[in-house]
Amino acid sequence: MDALLIALLGCLLGEMGDKSQLLVLALATRYDRDGAVIVGIIAAAIANAAISACAGGWIGPMLGADARLLFLALAILFLGVGLLWRVSTPDMLDGWPTGAFLTTALGLFILGFGDGPQFLILGIATRTGDPALAGIGGAIGVIAALVPVVLLRGQLLALLPLRAIRRAGGVVLLVTGAMLALSATSLL
């Protein structure tokens, strides 16, 4: 259950104010087909989470306990740095000749591939040995961060203090990741 909850909260935090939310806002506004955009979000989130969870389930048994903890620490550090990094505007996929669902699903899949939340799912799946729960929690976290943007459009992004959330979350994740890394290397 720890894998599910940590992945859910970490991915939710990692997507706050990120490029994915900006892309979803642009696509929801352009297509004005909330259902198709939401289904595209769900498809992309599940696909990215499944890839990460499967990779973590495959890599985990090959590593020792300290190496798995260090891998998780690096994933948390990577996500923390990503939260403190300035968010650039993503490509809005204007020239894509596909509809709302396919543009959303493919755009978010490509944008999220190798991103902090996907790497966090990989790290949790590697460390905990519960790849399915890590994948489910991560997918739910990404979906929970993106679907309200479709439903509320820019209102959600205007209401939330995204800069403060990203900074505070980044600091918490950096401290947590550093402590886990020190513990994994027996320096703590």
Describe the structure.
The protein has 188 residues and is mainly α. It has one domain. It is built from 9 helices and no strands. Helix 4 runs antiparallel to helix 6. The model has no long low-confidence stretch (mean pLDDT 92).
Topology (SSEs and partners):
Layout: H1 2-15, H2 19-31, H3 34-59, H4 65-84, H5 100-112, H6 116-128, H7 131-152, H8 154-159, H9 162-184
Helix pairs in contact: 1-6, 1-7, 2-5, 2-7, 3-5, 3-6, 3-7, 4-6, 4-9, 6-7
Give the structure's gist in a few sentences:
The protein is mainly α. Helix content is 80%, strand content 0%. It has helices spanning 2-15, 19-31, 34-59, 65-84, 100-112, 116-128, 131-152, 154-159, 162-184.
Question: Which descriptor suits the 3D outline?
Answer: globular
Number of strands: 0
Structural class: mainly alpha
Helical residue percent band: over 70%
Let me know the largest β-sheet. none
Could you name the key traits of this structure?
80% helix; single chain; mainly alpha; 9 helices; 188 residues
